[in-house]
Design brief:
Structural class: alpha+beta
Strand order of the largest sheet: 1-2
Strand content: 15-25%
Number of helices: 2
Number of strands: 2
Largest sheet: 2 strands, antiparallel
Length: 54
């Protein structure tokens, strides 16, 4: 949830990123193996991510 919030806060005010897009992108990166995830991927509050070792 923190990563999504930071992404929204750092986005361009003229073209803001919404939380649905940011969380969806994180989920896609986990599914692609670019990030490691733990927990329930359908819930931002019950899900943790970290960098993948690759």
């Amino acid at each position: 949830m923190r990563i999504v919030g930071q992404t929204i806060g750092l986005s361009n005010p003229r073209n803001p990123v919404n939380e649905v897009f940011a969380s969806g992108r994180i989920k896609a990166l986990v599914e692609a193996g670019k990030l490691k995830g733990r927990g329930d991927i359908t819930s931002m509050r019950a899900f943790e991510v970290k960098r993948s070792g690759t």
